[in-house]
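Ops channel
N.P.: pipeline sanity check, posting one input/output pair.
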């Protein structure tokens, strides 16, 4: 395993991490979830990602039971939660108000069976709550020792800078990590919009969906398997945005690149993400140990993606963002 600093910050995260979105408590049984976490940990993964909104808190309960059972030394792994979507639909059970942030943090600690969260994210921006209220709440959780680092997920660069400006003015702990979607098909925000945040703020990133919700596995070339996440009821929006004729054509060409390198398409896609120096860690998601085992081997593929191979990939993708001229 390779370990990277979280942006400019001192904590080191494994270049590959493991998350539970749509899997724990929904698409896999608890025994398989435990087997996957053990495999990840044994391969050097030290960060496990979760959120209150994943299966209405059930994902955190499953992960917490596994962490309690395995009893790994607390200084050998990190665990996260995210606040915004909530587990209920009554007033103050969602959003980024101070009330919901505090109560959601305490509930996450109970479900995950830990004394503190290593990372705590604002899962989405909240237009109904002032950023300063959210920032103060996160700062106070850190001062109380319940959270070590706080960050954002799918916030705009402008919103992150607003939070930072308020923190600087009032000497508060700023958000140090963003969790954005990033993959071969989704590049604009990560590569262009956030560019100054890496150099000016030292922003760390824990990216999700490196396989474009499974599109970059190639398994949707003929049909959508019944046991895949794109077949889950309620995720029709994800299916329609992930599988398009243009993408399928590019996926076929990328499959040829992977075959020439002697690796799988998922390994190629994950390794491509790892090449970006602003990626602190790539969050993997898997429903089977065989799938996770294959994805974890992507770390060994880094030397294969030479400048020539990268250029070949860009010729297929044709979507490299044009960097702004500051």
């Amino acid at each position: 395993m390779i370990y990277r600093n979280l942006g400019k910050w001192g904590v080191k995260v494994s270049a590959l991490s493991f998350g539970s979105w749509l899997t724990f408590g929904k698409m896999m049984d608890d025994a398989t979830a435990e087997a996957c976490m053990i495999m990840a940990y044994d391969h050097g993964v030290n960060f496990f990602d979760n959120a209150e909104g994943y299966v209405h808190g059930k994902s955190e309960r499953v992960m917490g039971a596994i962490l309690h059972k395995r009893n790994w030394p607390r200084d050998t792994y990190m665990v996260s939660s995210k606040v915004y979507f909530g587990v209920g639909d009554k007033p103050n059970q969602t959003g980024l108000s101070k009330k919901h942030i505090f109560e959601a943090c305490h509930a996450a600690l109970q479900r995950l069976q830990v004394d503190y969260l290593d990372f705590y994210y604002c899962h989405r921006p909240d237009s109904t709550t002032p950023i300063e209220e959210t920032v103060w709440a996160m700062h106070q959780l850190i001062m109380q020792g319940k959270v070590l680092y706080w960050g954002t997920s799918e916030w705009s660069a402008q919103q992150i800078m607003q939070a930072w400006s308020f923190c600087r003015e009032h000497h508060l702990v700023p958000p140090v990590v963003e969790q954005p979607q990033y993959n071969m098909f989704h590049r604009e925000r990560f590569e262009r919009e956030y560019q100054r945040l890496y150099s000016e703020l030292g922003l760390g990133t824990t990216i999700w969906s490196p396989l474009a919700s499974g599109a970059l596995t190639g398994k949707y070339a003929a049909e959508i398997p019944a046991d895949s996440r794109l077949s889950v009821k309620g995720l029709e929006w994800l299916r329609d945005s992930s599988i398009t004729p243009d993408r399928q054509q590019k996926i076929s060409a990328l499959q040829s690149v992977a075959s020439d390198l002697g690796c799988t398409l998922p390994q190629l896609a994950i390794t491509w993400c790892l090449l970006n120096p602003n990626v602190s860690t790539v969050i993997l998601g898997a429903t089977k140990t065989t799938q996770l085992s294959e994805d974890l081997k992507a770390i060994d593929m880094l030397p294969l993606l030479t400048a020539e191979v990268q250029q070949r990939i860009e010729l297929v993708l044709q979507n490299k963002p044009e960097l702004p001229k500051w």
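N.P.: looks fine end to end. The beta strands are 3-5, 12-14, 16-19, 47-49, 78-83, 117-122, 147-152, 177-178, 204-207, 281-284.
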